[in-house]
């Protein structure tokens, strides 16, 4: 049985940028529902003995397993999203992650513009990602619904959730403002750097 992973900070730790009310609904209800649904879907099946990543990989191209994929991938995506943020985060990074961003995007501002454009232009629900491709270079991609870099041979470095429930309580329909706040005040660059491959 899968369980809701603990948040890496208190429920009110991202305020005033993301309020406790947002996390109570987004983490406490949406994320929990994916866990509950997945457990119900895989009960007494061969998937019950697999890791989350194994379930995602095995079901990603199987139309008859889309329910299992969606719930498993959303557990993974949300857990990664919570870790992509921290209190007093955001702004321009330092260290190896900055060196890599400057090497692959030209400068931090170019990365920021590219990431914000991806996050604000993802039509409907989905995710903006900083990923490391198979060639080792960083790039920005966006995915719809539950789709994620894992099934495209890319290493996730950082993500921003752009499903409306991620920001609607605090920002209403102002997705660009939410993305600005994510980049300026919330990004956990230590987590991003730790995700870099060799």
TrEMBL record:
Native source species: Candidatus Bealeia paramacronuclearis
Keyword S-adenosyl-L-methionine listed: no
Record EC number: 1.15.1.1
Highest taxon listed in the record's lineage: Bacteria
Family statement: Belongs to the iron/manganese superoxide dismutase family.
Keyword Ubl conjugation attributed: no
Record domain Manganese/iron superoxide dismutase N-terminal: where: 2-86
Domain Manganese/iron superoxide dismutase C-terminal per the UniProt entry, residue ranges: 93-194
Gene3D superfamilies (UniProt xref): Fe,Mn superoxide dismutase (SOD) domain, Iron/manganese superoxide dismutase, C-terminal domain
Catalytic reaction annotation: 2 superoxide + 2 H(+) = H2O2 + O2
UniProt-listed Pfam families: Sod_Fe_C, Sod_Fe_N
Protein name from the UniProt record: Superoxide dismutase
InterPro entries for this protein: Mn/Fe_SOD, Mn/Fe_SOD_BS, Mn/Fe_SOD_C, Mn/Fe_SOD_N, Mn/Fe_SOD_N_sf, SOD_C_sf
Keywords annotated in UniProt: Metal-binding, Oxidoreductase
General function of this protein: Destroys radicals which are normally produced within the cells and which are toxic to biological systems.
Top EC class, one word: oxidoreductase
